[in-house]
From TrEMBL:
Entry's localization field: Cytoplasm
PROSITE patterns: PHOSPHOFRUCTOKINASE
Residues at which Mg(2+) binds: D103
Catalytic activity of the protein: beta-D-fructose 6-phosphate + ATP = beta-D-fructose 1,6-bisphosphate + ADP + H(+)
PANTHER family documented for this protein: ATP-DEPENDENT 6-PHOSPHOFRUCTOKINASE, PHOSPHOFRUCTOKINASE
Domain annotation Phosphofructokinase: ranges: 3-279
Record: residues binding ATP: G11, R72, S73, G102, D103, G104, S105
Pathway(s) of this molecule: Carbohydrate degradation; glycolysis; D-glyceraldehyde 3-phosphate and glycerone phosphate from D-glucose: step 3/4
Organism (species): Flavobacterium proteolyticum
Broadest EC class assigned to this enzyme: transferase
The family this protein is said to belong to: Belongs to the phosphofructokinase type A (PFKA) family. ATP-dependent PFK group I subfamily. Prokaryotic clade 'B1' sub-subfamily.
Statement: the UniProt record of this protein carries the keyword Nucleotide-binding: yes
The protein, known as: ATP-dependent 6-phosphofructokinase
Length: 324
């Protein structure tokens, strides 16, 4: 291994820059060259490369987004697209790459490795925390902090007006963000895709809350929740069944993907970036670097792609107890 490429692919997440920095500086430390690949796999196909040294990644550890830009590339899903990418990498002398992204990006890396025997390592970068083989994905902790900050503010207005707020948070088909931020922000109810709560139980629970003296309520709803068709229909249903409540909806949206990474995400990014380079230099390929019980571990990419990240059901119980 003499020249390692690094790219960010799929949705961006806070901490990607800190991971790029770690990869670039680990390469310098171990005396191998490093090349930044812009715009994910699309930049690989178009040969959008830049040699990177330690000074090229100064002042980015604290920045959200990704200096390398990210993209979704339809061309990389085709054999012709991947052939172009391979030819460009070879022409530039790049002999391996580290891809920071989600399971789609890992699938692309796996297929590319199968076709060309090209060494690849994945770093899990997504706020959703929905990747098997790591307790935390890059950006997840920052997103949680962003969400609780927003809900704290919403609570101020909910309290002042005796309102019920439905706050929709991201997470795709996983309820990690909703469950953890919901507990952290003191939500009365948390609706996640992994648990079918049922509308009747929701109404019953909200009536109980009101009966116990609560004058306002926050319900955190994961975007993938299946209880109502969407959060606005949920609002309509509650208004019909609980006319005493003034119901509002807040969809937090893309603000959750941005912002300066938390200290946790910066440290995690640094550890994952270093380990990714070390793994390639050890002659290994097709692994995802991840965090498990505070140790950096390797999970075969195939398992990371196919495995299901699971919700800690203990947390559901904790949420029920502390919101009573
Ligand atoms: P996010 O969690 O934000 O969705 P992701 O990495 O899962 O991140 P995707 O859009 O699914 O995001 O994948 C990123 C890119 O990986 C795609 O645009 C495509 O270029 C490549 N990719 C995904 N699946 C495949 C595949 N089956 N074959 C080849 N390339 C793929």
């Amino acid at each position: 291994i003499k020249k390692i490429g690094v790219l960010t692919s799929g949705g961006d997440s806070p901490g990607m820059n800190a991971a790029i920095r770690a990869v670039v500086r680990a390469c310098a430390y171990y005396n191998v060259e490093c090349v930044g690949i812009y715009r994910g796999y699309q930049g690989m196909i178009e040969g959008d490369f830049k040699e990177m040294g330690p000074r090229d990644v100064k002042n980015i550890i604290n920045k959200g987004g990704t200096i390398l830009k990210s993209a979704r590339s339809a061309d990389f899903r085709t054999a012709e697209g991947r052939k172009k990418a391979y030819d460009n990498l070879v022409a530039a002398g790049i002999d391996s790459f580290v891809v920071i992204g989600g399971d789609g990006s890992f699938t692309g890396a796996e297929i590319f490795n199968e076709e060309y025997g090209f060494p690849v390592i994945g770093i899990p970068g997504t706020i959703d925390n929905d990747i098997y083989g790591t307790s935390h994905t890059l950006g997840y902790d920052t997103a949680l902090n962003t969400v609780i900050d927003a809900i704290d503010k919403i609570r101020d207005t909910a309290n002042s007006h005796n309102r019920l707020f439905f706050v929709e948070v991201m997470g795709r088909d996983a309820g990690h963000i909703a469950l953890n931020a919901g507990i952290g922000a003191g939500a009365e109810e948390i609706l996640i895709p992994e648990e079918d709560f049922g509308l009747d139980r929701l109404v019953e629970s909200l009536k109980r809350s009101k009966g116990s003296g609560k004058t306002s309520s926050i319900v955190v709803v994961s975007e993938g929740d299946k209880i109502g068709k969407n959060v606005f229909e949920l609002k309509d249903y509650i208004e019909e069944n609980m006319p005493e409540y003034d119901v509002r909806v807040s969809v937090l949206g893309h603000m959750q993907r941005g912002g300066s990474p938390s200290c946790f995400d910066r440290v995690l990014a640094s550890r994952l970036g270093v380990k990714a380079v070390e793994t390639l230099l050890d002659g290994k390929s097709n692994y995802m670097v991840g965090l498990n019980q505070d140790k950096i571990t390797l999970t075969p990419l195939e398992q990371a792609i196919k495995g299901q990240s699971e919700i800690d059901m203990e947390l559901v119980k904790v949420s029920d107890i502390v919101s009573s």
